[in-house]
């Protein structure tokens, strides 16, 4: 029995797997060690995950998470898991590596994540050999939910959309402009707040100005990230809620830039289960 985890900044998808068979699936809050402490993550695991695992004997935990690309950050997550699960093997790797394994297995390809944050790499079938640093939602994370939210809210409050779009959005978010600014500049995890705007953006994607905003954000992602890899010889595959729910626009931009897209999945978990079953 093994426990696999695909951890984004917004949520963690935990899957209890026995010889390739999914026994239990549990979702908890995001566990990005750049935004959460060992104590915080440990408490979340204890209250939201452990009661769902019951008496199952777990032999190994494989955690692939956002922010888990540095030893000191990985230790934050590993320690939180170790405090709650008595197991000999705990491996913590980046969500990007987990996505590469889940989408490509042992085949090479360009792999991207478009969720709350964004990331990309060239995977040679065994390891990540090239990675353009995502830089986070302030300096980078092009095409991510947080950046889409940041761009949309900024444009909305600066009256760049039809009045009815702005009116509908303020009703949807149920916050005043000063309250929105407080959420972004003073409250914890502003990236998660910004990404929470994406369902509204999706609902209004037929509006030309909204569509153009998403289109331009995806083109920015392709040009600043994907096009630094050998995209002319390898397909580009995607995982993440933004890639999945906005895939029509994503494919439109890729086609315009002559980039061949492979898979687009909401989660790489099915591929990870298959990989570890083998």
Automatic annotation (TrEMBL):
Coiled coil start-end: none
Gene3D superfamilies (alphabetical): 1.10.720.160, 3.30.420.40
Name of the molecule in the record: ATPase BadF/BadG/BcrA/BcrD type domain-containing protein
Record organism: bioreactor metagenome
